[in-house]
Amino acid sequence: MNLKHKIEYSISLIKKAEKLALKYDSEDGFYLAFSGGKDSQVIYELAKMAGVKFQAHMNLTSVDPPQVIKFVRKYYPDVILHRPKESIYKLIPKKKCLPTRIIRWCCDLLKEQSGAGTVTILGIRKAESVRRSKRNELELSGYKYSGSFDQFVIHKETEVSCIKGKDKIMLSPILEWSDKDVWDFLKFRGLPHCELYDMGYTRIGCIMCPMSNKKGIARDRKMFPKVEKAYKRAIANLVESNPYYATKLNRDVDLIFEWWCSKLSMDEFKARNIQQHKIKFD
Q1: What InterPro entries does the record tag this protein with (predicted)?
Q2: I want to staple 123 with a disulfide (CB 3.0 to 4.6 A). Which of 39, 106, 251, 270 is the partner?
Q3: In terms of domains, do 194 and 228 share one?
Q4: Looking at the predicted structure, is the pLDDT value of residue 33 above 90?
């Protein structure tokens, strides 16, 4: 399927879903999850092209690159910015652990709970990761629905209240798009993009995101030194709230931070430091 057909298909999918979206939110229609990245720009533009009712929302995490916030405020002033009740730095000692690839409480608390009780348009794509390659165009919270959209509507038509509490129906209209499709679409529509892409970033997210690789973490540390200092202050408070870090890494804030950035298990990190730097651990 070429880009033209992908655009047509995505717009058709969004149009079909509008009736359902309005049943849950007659005032705003779709809840469009916006991040300031290229994929969220695409779904925003597709929603406009589809002529549907939607409101774009961006959930800030307190570790958002300032370049992204500046870009969104300049080019997407209608996007509603939601600030967290507590910064990630305050949440770290409260959760008694740092967020990691395995324990991603940061996304759960700061992003994924948004849009509850709505039909939410997401800009996720299979090409982004193995995890996302298993996603479906239409999902009900954690439940993956593999049938067609029309079948879903028929199945749920008599149960419009299927969304309860924190549930939401998630629509991913560009799931099958490639990176090239996204960039070609932005160029075709004459849309600007965040300057971070011109600085070597391929994906835009939180500064020092636990899902970033070591190269990405190193780049963030160099570009955002104040964020590293803030994380270390949070780690100092974490050591006081969780003795695990105190006993495992000698209450050493810098050492704990280096472990977190290393992407190694605690035992692997300790073994490497004992061998390379002759560090003694309690």
Answers
A1: PAPS_reduct_dom, Rossmann-like_a/b/a_fold, Sulfate_adenylyltrnsfr_sub2
A2: 39
A3: no
A4: yes
